[in-house]
Amino acid sequence: MSAGRLVRAAAAGGVAGLVLRRLGQGALVMLAAGALAFAISELAGDPVAAMVGLDASPERRAEARIALGLDRPALLRFLDWAGAALGGDLGLSWRLRIPVAEALAQRLPATAELVVVSALFAIPAGLAAGTWAGLRPGSAGSRGAAAASLLGVSVPTFVIGLALIQVFAVELRWLPASGRAGTVELGGWRSSLLTAQGWASILLPALTLALFQLPAILRLARAETAEALAAEHIRFARARGLPERVALRHALRSAAPPVIAATATNLGALVAFSVITETVFQWPGTGLFFLQSVEAVDAPAMAGCLVLAAAIFVAVNLVADLAHLALDPRLRG
Amino acid sequence: MTPLLRIEDLRVAFGGRQAVDGASLEIAPGEILALAGESGAGKSALAAALLGLIPPPGRVTGGRILFAGLDLATLPEAGFRPLRGLRIATVVQDPSAALDPMASIGAQLVETLRLRRGLARGPARARAEALLAEAGLPEPAAMLSRPPHRLSGGQRQRAVIALALAGDPELLVADEPTASLDVAGRAALLALLRRLCRDRGMAALLIGHDLAAAAACADRVAVMQAGRIVETGPPETILRAPSHPWTRAMAAALPRLDAPGPVARAPQGPAVLALEGVGLSYARRALLRPAPAAVLQDVSLSLRAGESLGLVGASGSGKSSVARLAAGLLRPDVGRVRREGTVQMVFQDALGSLNPRMTAGEIVAEPVAHLRLAAPGAPTRAEVARLLEAVGLPPDAAARRPLAFSGGQRQRIAIARALAARPALLIADEPTSALDVTTQERVLALLARLQAERGFAMLFVTHDLAVARAVCPRLAVMEAGRVVEQGPAAAILDAPRSAAARRLVAAARAMAPA
């Protein structure tokens, strides 16, 4: 075996090892999130009272406990619950009287579309503005962008949302203030991206989420670009007479991995927790469902939201790690 | 012969600071000129001016740089483009930072050859391989596909040289090209540069703070001080009969192999450090990872109170691992490490070892306060002032932060902090290898004096035999994770028994003032 092939084989082993480690860590995170979710469903509310009423006799309550399986040890019940959850059964929502998994599946498309549309606004704009500002860190425009983005990072989402509603829905009456209208069912996926009415209703919440993400992306892209551009290897590239555009390409390649990783992780967080935006706009996604479940002390639904959020976090982080691995040879050993 | 490059009364200013202040020099075609001087003398600013790459806010404020019928001092940016890489190339100080970490060596070479020499992909690849071979890299074909982090420090510097040669320049400007290498690596790299210049008829401006190294491979030496060239001449003259007082001081500061080293005092008292059959590997239990080779094998050393031991060896021989084990920062996999009393460390990177947000006074006060070492009743402040004075820092140093100090002064702060804990053993890991020779000499003298006054034992780690010789009566030579030779410094220098010791002595002699 030549030395070159040996190096490649070793690198391949390193990658497989890294992916396996990440998968193992993901499983641990899911186990911890599952335990937390189970603990919440144990502590929130009283399923026995819900079943037989608060004024039931002790005998009746004991029967209900046995019927619900609550007399068995907590660990066994957790294993049962985890096994069912692995099979996609997150229990029955106390509030809606339908399976939690079904309720989440109905609401996931709304959230997913909201996040994707907001990312389509925020990521290109944030990357472009951040890179532009990073290429000329001392300029007035760059300093202005940095200051404005600091303001943007500090303004809470609900303020942005309410301001957009005030301007575009109340004053100008261009767009609806809330709800998700104009949806079309397509193979079990209810989409609002196929009608003009649907787009009208998604624009304001998506813009709100985009304005929440954009400043962070801009700031990170600006900082990473400026740092990459100051690197010694860029100076050396210029000293070799390489054209400025090539030097910039080298700089952007170094700047890309951390920006991609942070942006991807941020997207995962949005899918999991667009709670505030969805509440402000009464957008029927998983975030609004979570809040409604908390208000109704719907323990299985809350637990289901938590498990879904953890699963999305783990998956998105794994994808971000793989992207980082593909981009940066230093991680490949 | 008309000179290839002629610098007349050059001035470069950074804001109000005049980095180059009326420097003049000439380089003939094919000539190797060494530009020596302390850090801050203006050498790098002068080199940057040759390529029109002075970092802002610096700019040329006067004088001329005549090259190829052009005056580079007034040349606009567009005028530099045909020169950079093709007529004047540069090799930078830190090869690890000079290569794009995200691209393979081959990709970087091929890109440069295609853009600057107009080669097609296939010929560019063949030329890239030839350049790597010319720069002395083993297995050039395999090197092409490797990313920089898979190369050793010396290999990276050779890859940087290959990139610099890609445009077949007439003048190579090398700014401290050996700063990151050990003594053997330095000698090999300077020999390579000399051979390349001879083979290609290429001139070189070789910048360095090491006068001896400069003299060993240059045709002529120019000495720079405070922005001016104070002396120029053949290497023998500069080393043996320097005319400028500053050059004389610098030549005298060179650590010499033949200098009488410190006399070994009769070791007293108990051992403060004993390593017994220590083995170490950085293996971690992990899936699908090949078992790494042992870093240390069967290392045994001991130090008594007040004794100093020089631990010498090439890069990667395991010296720093021994230092970390001795300090308790690592645990051995096999064998035993016994310590008596407090152990303190001084690191190579003084700036990196000091918190930039703390003042020198706070840095030194921390161990005094936390280890409750100040005499009862004596305020910490007084103890800090005594320590700063002991390491030769001015009284107002306590209020300033690390960035406000020079490299040598930072190392003094680090030494004061170590002394604050009243160590029984001081471990110094390459404490002077980032410093220029005159500063190095002062720091070494300081360590020797403090040791004599305070009686701590010292484990002095260095790749430089001459430096070890200057502070340690006894040496231990390491190679590939083992101690291959131990004994009095004089005996090892006069009659090295192991191959590793012989190589170190030969490298040190090649670099030493003749």
UniProtKB/TrEMBL annotation, chain A:
Example GO BP: transmembrane transport
Domain ABC transmembrane type-1, residue spans: 108-324
GO cellular component, one term: plasma membrane
Record-annotated membrane-spanning stretches: 114-135, 147-169, 189-212, 259-281, 301-327
Pfam families named in the record: BPD_transp_1
Membrane-protein topology: Multi-pass membrane protein
Cell location: Cell membrane
Primary location group: membrane
Domain of life: Bacteria
The entry's keywords: Cell membrane, Membrane, Transmembrane, Transmembrane helix, Transport
Similarity section: Belongs to the binding-protein-dependent transport system permease family.
PANTHER family to which the protein is assigned, alphabetical: ABC TRANSPORTER PERMEASE PROTEIN, DIPEPTIDE TRANSPORT SYSTEM PERMEASE PROTEIN DPPB-RELATED
Name the record gives this protein: Peptide/nickel transport system permease protein
UniProtKB/TrEMBL annotation, chain B:
Keyword Membrane applies: yes
Topological relation to the membrane, as annotated: Peripheral membrane protein
Presence of the UniProt keyword Membrane in the record: yes
Subcellular location(s) per record: Cell inner membrane
Gene3D superfamilies: P-loop containing nucleotide triphosphate hydrolases (3.40.50.300)
Predominant location: membrane
Gene Ontology BP term (one): peptide transport
GO cellular component: plasma membrane
InterPro entries: AAA+_ATPase, ABC_Ni/Peptide_Import, ABC_transporter-like_ATP-bd, ABC_transporter-like_CS, Oligopep_ABC_C, P-loop_NTPase
Name of protein: Peptide/nickel transport system ATP-binding protein/peptide/nickel transport system ATP-binding protein
Organism whose genome encodes this protein: Albimonas pacifica
